[in-house]
Specification:
By secondary structure, the chain is of the alpha+beta class. Helix content is about 30%, strand content about 20%. A 7-stranded mixed beta sheet has the order 11-10-12-14-15-9-16. It has a 6-stranded mixed beta sheet with strand order 1-6-7-8-3-13, with helices on one face. The longest helix is centred in the first third of the chain and has 23 residues. The radius of gyration is 22 Å and the shape is globular. Keywords: Acyltransferase, Transferase. One of its GO terms (molecular function) is acyltransferase activity. Belongs to the plant acyltransferase family. This is BAHD acyltransferase At5g47980-like.
């Protein structure tokens, strides 16, 4: 399907802040956490149905929408002025108003065709840049692509440099843009800057640079699994225990995905321990440091305020039949509780210690004797509230970055179900996607429904 659908770029334009950035704001410091962030773009797609009936007025309405988006983006960039700048020397964004990129594209199909069975590779074509592009660390920090469908529908693709911020930062930016588009200054949640003052950057010019996370597109496969609200509730009920009497949706879904990944790895041809024997694994959940910090940090504080809650499963060499789903939930909950306790005890953040921890973690990722699984939850971010003036999105989709063994969880539109975007090696994915226990709770790439 990815090759059948034609996406034609109509034009590319540079959008600069509507007011020049003041001289005293021209140098925006990155924090140590920004410096350590993987050099990719964070991608998201917001799909909007045709708000009007299919009439000849749609062409004018579409042009007006694009102009409205560009003008409101220029105003938004006066608040998010670093996004119109460029990173210099790995520690500073030079806020020179070079601008963001705004792309218009025409798609030769209807939204309903996309929604039938969304293809991970096809969705990439609605983004203005490949998520893995190294430009994320050297070039344009924000790119937007407005995709116009034959039915009058629209998909807005956002690519924001991970060096500038995380998913919470992306959410704050979209909230700011939609409020600006409505001229709702009373609803405007302006970004807060200053993370570098809390998490001091390090000077790597005279020291060994941080090792980088490997991005590789070859031999990876991404699949979308959808947990409906009723299935999530049943799964939560199944994994309830005295240790975790009230597991969250994310804990329940994460534990099942982890279990099925362990089983797929055990059955893969690369398992040197033998067929169906467990390889040791580490499971890392991203956590929002804004909520973990004591006292809590503002939700609109911009930057990469993300840490990892890490736990392990070390029944190496045993048969996969011993894996206890309730036990995995307890491990995930335990890791999160340990992370909370660690932040409660922090008085002053130690950037050198954070740098050493990151080196340890990346070296762990490179250890072929241990399986590493990462899960990032975007649930509860209100992306489905993003209304630019023609209603809320009918579907919000993550677009997978080529990082092996990474899962990203997003809300279904009802706010109760979960969509899981899972990236694995091709062999492991074939084993994972046929797991009967997984398919008892999750559907493999069903049609997008309201």
């Amino acid at each position: 399907m990815a090759t059948e659908i034609k996406v034609e770029i109509i034009q590319r334009q540079t959008v600069k802040p509507s007011s020049p950035t003041p001289h005293h704001l021209r140098n925006y410091k990155l924090s140590i956490l920004d410096q350590m962030a993987v050099q990719t773009y964070i991608p998201i797609l917001l799909f909007y149905p045709n708000a009007a009936d299919a009439t000849s007025n749609n062409v004018m309405a579409t042009n007006e929408r694009c102009q409205h988006l560009m003008q409101s983006l220029a105003k938004t960039l006066t608040h998010f002025y670093p996004l119109a700048g460029r990173i210099k020397g790995g520690a500073v964004i030079e806020c020179n108003d070079d601008g963001a990129e705004f792309v218009e594209a025409r798609v030769k199909c209807s939204l309903s065709e996309i929604f039938e069975h969304p293809d991970a590779e096809m969705l990439r074509r609605f983004l203005p840049v490949e998520p893995e592009s190294r430009e994320a660390g050297t070039g344009t920090l924000l790119l937007v692509q407005v995709n116009l469908f034959e039915c009058g529908g629209m998909a807005i693709g956002f690519s924001i440099s991970h060096k500038f911020g995380d998913a919470a930062t992306l959410n704050t930016f979209i909230n700011c843009w939609t409020a600006t588009a409505h001229d709702q200054s009373n609803m405007l949640m302006l970004p807060k800057f200053g993370a570098a003052a809390l998490f001091s950057p390090l000077n790597f010019s005279n020291s060994e640079p941080l090792p980088s996370v490997e991005v590789k597109k070859e031999k990876l496969m991404t699949r979308r699994f959808v947990f409906d609200a009723s299935k999530i509730a049943a799964l939560q009920s199944k994994v309830t225990s005295s240790v975790v009497p009230k597991p969250t949706r994310v804990e329940a879904a994460s534990a099942l995905i982890w279990k099925c990944k362990i089983e797929a790895s055990a059955r893969s041809s690369s398992n040197m321990l033998g067929t169906s024997l467990i390889r040791p694994s580490v499971f890392s959940h991203t956590v929002n440091m804004r909520k973990m910090a004591v006292p809590a940090l503002p939700e609109n504080l911009v930057g990469n305020l993300v840490d990892f809650s890490t736990t392990n499963y070390s029944h190496s060499g045993e048969n996969t039949t011993v894996i206890d789903l309730k036990g995995l939930v307890a491990k995930i909950r335990g890791g999160l509780e340990e992370t909370k306790e660690r932040y409660a005890a922090v008085v002053v953040f130690d950037s050198n210690e954070a740098g050493e921890k990151m080196k340890w973690y990346i070296n762990l990722l490179k250890n072929d004797g241990i399986d590493k699984f990462i899960c990032s939850s975007w649930c509860r971010f209100p992306f489905y509230e993003a209304d630019f003036g023609w209603g809320k999105p009918s579907w919000v989709s993550y677009v997978a970055v080529a990082l092996e063994n990474v899962t990203v969880l997003t809300d279904k539109r009802d706010g109760n179900g979960i969509e899981a975007w899972v990236t694995l090696s091709q062999e492991n994915m074939a084993l994972f996607e046929s797991n009967k226990e997984l398919l008892a709770y999750a559907s493999l790439n069903p049609r997008v429904t309201n």
